[in-house]
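Review form for a predicted model. The reviewer records the input and the model, then writes brief findings.
Reviewer: anonymous (R2)
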Amino acid sequence: MYFAKLQNVPTSPRKMRLVADMVRGMEVNRALGVLKFSSKEAAARVEKLLRSAIANWEQKNERKAESGELYVTKIFVDGGATLKRMRPAPQGRGYRIRKRSNHVTLFVDSKNNNADQN
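Model under review:
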């Protein structure tokens, strides 16, 4: 199992999870296509992360990944640090703004490896 991590992404975890759910369990070339043509801002970050995970797999196995071989086995999004900011509000009040961030972890592996482990 080969993975890549993306930490302290300045978008809310909820928005990132929408993108993560799109590619979970998909074959990597298909996932790259889905991410490339997605209108979500987080999709570009996940696409770069997926390319990194594929490169990690290729580096360890010392060969190029063929199409249909690698799959996104696991992808999950955890909440990161939250920056707390104040916004002016009516009548001298201040409303708290929470600027959320997240961490994404993406695992890729080939189907035949999964069958051996189970």
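Findings: The mean pLDDT is 91.
Further findings: Strands lie at 2-9, 70-79, 83-88, 94-99, 102-110.
Recommendation: see findings above.
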